[in-house]
Amino acid sequence: MNYSVIVPFFNEEKTLQTAVLNLLKEDFASEIILVNDGSNDSSKEIALRLIEKYKNIKLVDSKTNKGKGHALKIGINKSKTKYIGILDADLEYSPNDLKRLFLDIELNDGDVACGSRFIGNFERKNLYFRTYLANKILSNFFSFIHRKKVTDIATCLKVFKKEIFEFIELKENGFSIEVELLAKTLAKSKKYSEIPISYSARSYEDGKKIKFIDGLRYIVVILKFSRQKKWKWSWTIY
């Protein structure tokens, strides 16, 4: 196995340990890179206990909260494997689905593989209608602007071939990193795939962080990075 999984977290003391243990149970990650984005709860202490117990877990600590994008950029730079995946620590996404993405990108010699919550018949729980509608609209807008069909631009479950990051520079520090990642890696990729995934959304009361303003930022970023170089590519949905 030659897989790195980046787990960014900010104040996830309720879910971080469970998320990492669930990932370990799937037994596919060569290295797990925990990136603390300036947490001020006990998340860092939980992460320190995990790295003491498991040799394939690393912790990168950012003293201040700069956003998910900043955390992912740190994790990507620290990874040492052929393939890089992303898994949030909030338990909304399944490590088993991430494992399927790694297998998909490796077996098909892909460059980018993403999980989609809007294809297939997988179980999806607590998906807010307004979130569903906004995501569908933004995904269609992204597909139109970038001339690449993407069904779920806000998905947080993504896998990339590491070498693709040699040709791009990521700028965004917030949640809009999701859009920038897609825009820039798809512009450089020759093969992109989507597979259906499960999803269990948490409520804002339970700590969900993305807000309406982030949706507006998505629109700005879709347009901002619309001039990426287009390469010949192929696209498959399962």
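[next item in queue]
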Amino acid sequence: MFNISPVSQDNVFRKRRVARLSGMIADHVAAKGHCRVLDMGGTTGFWSVWRDVIDFSHVSVTCVNLAEVRQDETGSLPVKAQVGNACAMPEFEDNSFDVVFSNSVIEHVGLWPNKLAFAREARRLAPSYLIQTPNFWFPIDPHARFPFLHWLPRPVIYRIHMSMRTGFYPKTSDIDEAMTSTEDADMLDRKQMAHLFPDADIEAERFMLLTKSLLAVRHKVR
């Protein structure tokens, strides 16, 4: 359940999320004979892990990532990587895809205007989308694996990053590196997600009665 790998199947929340996505894809395939998926901020390696959960026989997946990422070995899977900015994708016309998917990305795109732009692109590019993000009010920072870290003032956070390794973040050697880690993720709460995705259902992934993550889900089949 607590495996921190971004592509591991050993996480019940991620399994349920992908199963939900698989059902959305299947609905589009049933209606149209195929499904075009856009993974905003994702990598090809993620999809390789789930080849036994998702039926790729009538599916194509495009992964758009700001950084140039390696095209991981996907075998015969119809998955490709493309460099691009998920906050602005003029290369794609409206409804170029059937399903937009994003897993723990929107909290990393920067300040609020970028989050607004990211959400607009997700809503514009497909009739269905599933956007997941960690919940700000869950007490453990999912990136640093450190209780309450994201609730602390930034002058305290960057000093913690300079003093020790925290989850995904290595111990930093100077303030520049520490601030980069500090500002890497800016998590959202339910009200913010509802504002960003007003046409979606905002759902909760719960752990021990606490909301661990939030999902914005809109599912329309045309």
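[queue empty]
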